[in-house]
Amino acid sequence: RVRELLERARAAGDLGAQAAAHLIIADALWESGPEAAEHLRQAQHLADASAQDELGLEARIALVIYLTEFLNQIEEAERVAEDAAAWLQRLGHPRRMEMRWVLARANIHGRRGENEQALAALRRYLEIAQAHEAPGSPRLADGYNNLASQLSMMGRYAECAELLQRGLVEAKRARWRSETIAILLLGNLGLTR
After folding, report:
1. Half-sphere exposure of 136 (CA within 13 A, CB side)
2. Longest CA span, the chain
3. From CA 117, how far away is CA 84, in angstroms rounded?
4. Is residue 171 helix, strand or coil?
5. Cα separation of 148 and 141, whole Å?
6. Could you tell me how many helices (H) and strands (E) the chain has, helices first?
7. Which of 56, 82, 85, 180 is the most buried (most CB within 10 A)?
């Protein structure tokens, strides 16, 4: 159905709708291989051409994540991340996008073995979540879990356990995905003991 929408948007010359359709297709193909990356590049290009700046930023950040996690193309991911940083600045750092960008940067640093930089990025994510998310937010619980996971990888188990305990408090407050987050946090907490 999305491909049909894409074709209609092409026929109508609606570049913004085409960009949005490419993002949806990339999401559907996320684990299918390089085709998803091509749809993300198309979404970025079309969003830029139609002055859909937030959509273009979203495509850039998704491309960074995809290049890092699925294609292991760290150098290209770094270039796209720098471009996304400029767009974040231009758009006044929309919180949701900044949080995704910070996670994308943490992934790049983690893949490069730059543990302290990954840790700093994950601390920034948690700071943003603590400042702007409501108690019980899944993003807040995820922030504690992501930071704790990095600390665990670095052998800093006491700090990790403390953060996982705080994350469990947030997971208990969460109304959405609380069971999944709680299971993840408990599993990680078990690894620290």
Report:
1. 8
2. 59
3. 18
4. helix
5. 11
6. 10, 0
7. 56
Report residue 44 as tokens.
């970025």
Instruction: Rounding to the nearest 10 degrees, give the CA dihedral for residues 182, 183, 184, 187.
Output: 120
Q: Which tokens hold the place of 161?
A: 């356990």
The DSSP secondary structure of 60-123, one letter per residue, reads HHHHHHHHHHTS--HHHHHHHHHHHHHHHHHTT--HHHHHHHHHHHHHHHHHHT-HHHHHHHHH
Predicted structure pTM score: 0.86
C-alpha separations of 190 from 41, 140, 155, 163, 182 in Å: 40, 20, 14, 13, 12
pLDDT tens digits for range 16-51: 999 999 999 999 999 887 899 999 999 999 999 999
Q: How far is CA 125 from each of CA 3, 13, 100, 119, 129, rounded to the nearest angstrom?
A: 34, 38, 8, 10, 6
- The residue assigned the tokens 């750092």 is 93
User: Do residues 106 and 146 make contact, with C-beta atoms less than 8 angstroms apart?
Assistant: yes
What are the C-alpha distances in Å from 30 to residues 47, 54, 55, 58, 128?
19, 20, 18, 15, 27
pLDDT, tens only, 88-140: 999 999 999 999 999 999 999 999 999 999 999 999 999 999 999 988 888 88
